[in-house]
Amino acid sequence: MAGKRSRAFLVKELEKHYLLSGDVDGIIILWEFTLKDGKWRRVLQVPQQHKKGVTCISGIMVSQTAAIFASTSSDCTVHVWEMLLPSTGEGDCKLSCLDSLFLGSKAMVALSLAELPGNTGHIVLALGGLDNKVHLYYGERTGKFSHACELKGHTDWIRCLDFSLSICTTKDDSLFLVSSSQDRSIRLWKMTLIQTSIKEEEIGLASYIKGHILAVGSSSYQISLESLLIGHEDWVYSVEWRPPTKISPEDNDIHQPHCILSASMDKTMMIWQPEKTTGIWMNVVTVGELSHCALGFYGGHWSPSGDSVLAYGYGGSFHLWKNVGVDFDNWQPQKVPSGHFASVTDAAWARSGEYILSVSHDQTTRIFAPWKNEDGSSWHEIARPQVHGHDINCATMIQGKGNHRFVSGADEKVARVFEASLSFLKTLDHAHFQTSSVHVGLQDDIQILGANMSALGLSQKPIYVQGAVQFFPILHLRYFYNV
């Protein structure tokens, strides 16, 4: 469903996952996943719904049986809820609304919740949206939320916010907030516990020069800009801290690495870490797709163990990379589930029977083939030869060189003929045999090596085998192999 945002959290003692989802109608639903039987069920619908589409949901566990979550919407409101989970395997979840915030005419599209360090029992709420500012609110676990301050610096809409865990050391108690924006930058903010039992009127001008002061009860926090991360070439839609891990298998203490994942409309994801010697945040890993398909990545997520990253894009596609290195990082692309997200209108087998071609009202043509490896064979999408601007209604395979031609027809009332290139046939061969040698489908008389398309063009231009073609194979291989 369009405009859907969700956040999942786990209650280990109950062996259940809970998922909150919001839709374009402003409805929020709580789902429950039982690890024992592997089934999802709808638990309840949040009674107070938004008047417009839900833009973001964020939640945190404050105890083993209690969670606090907040939701933003295009109606310029934020609702904060407390959810009590059943202490045993049986029972119902209970909801109570803690607060409703009205934000004026500027809608918020991103939010994040965290517990303030120092065992104060307070929650901090960060909001960001169309006014280019990060708004901080604070409140008790069972009380109202008050506006604390505004963090300025971004020059375009804020797209994502994410709090780290409280990092408690002998020197200070700190909490980090990372924000991403359409201005292509990422900002890292630091909240440090500076003094207890300080009164607001005692805070001097020198403290404000260093950064905003957040006074919560008997505690005060200094808020400052820790770092500015620049590297993406388009809107940064998503940022996320690496999940925490246990320090040792025998110890229950957890540690969250200083590591951030960002996803952008430039079709790349980046991993950021501070250098050990200087502490300067640097881009240490970059993964992505080289293709001409529309738009880039809407979001990126870590796996629970932190050894894999997953991105999702405009066409309903997933992009997965895994760190397969032992002594050093080695991020490699992986196979992912895929499929049409609208009605499939036609399908046709290749004349050789090696793959099946399908067309859909999601305006794409996709090719599925068995992917053979040591564990056997499984079907996967290996190519997306047509990404169209109209709903595609029919397709058929036709006679051609190597029997790798098809014709498709769409709502524009035009039939288009496609011929497989050498790069696609190599991809098909790799899916069948997982070796570097060529086995199937490669003929000596193939004339088209790949395809090229200008940035603002709608038609592909073939790259022929004759001439200076050695600069283009990787470009077209990614175009044909877009997951």
Describe the structure.
The protein has helices at 205-210, 422-433, 473-480; strands spanning 5-11, 16-22, 28-34, 39-45, 54-63, 66-73, 77-84, 94-102, 108-115, 122-129, 134-140, 145-151, 158-163, 167-168, 173-181, 185-196, 212-216, 219-230, 236-241, 245-246, 254-255, 260-264, 268-274, 281-288, 297-302, 308-313, 318-323, 331-334, 344-349, 356-360, 364-373, 376-387, 392-398, 405-410, 415-419, 448-452, 461-464. Residues 1-5, 435-443 and 467-483 have low confidence and may be disordered. Strand 26 (308-313) and strand 27 form a beta hairpin. It is 5% helix and 52% strand. The longest helix is centred in the C-terminal third of the chain and has 12 residues, at 422-433. Strands 13, 14, 15, 16, 17 and 18 form a 6-stranded antiparallel β-sheet that branches. The chain has a 4-stranded antiparallel β-sheet with strand order 1-2-3-4, with no helix packed on it. It has a 4-stranded antiparallel β-sheet with strand order 5-6-7-8, with no helix packed on it. By secondary structure, it is mainly beta. The protein has 2 domains: 5-334, 7 Propeller (Methylamine Dehydrogenase, Chain H), CATH 2.130.10.10; 344-480, no CATH class. The radius of gyration is 26 Å and the shape is globular. It is built from 3 helices and 37 strands.
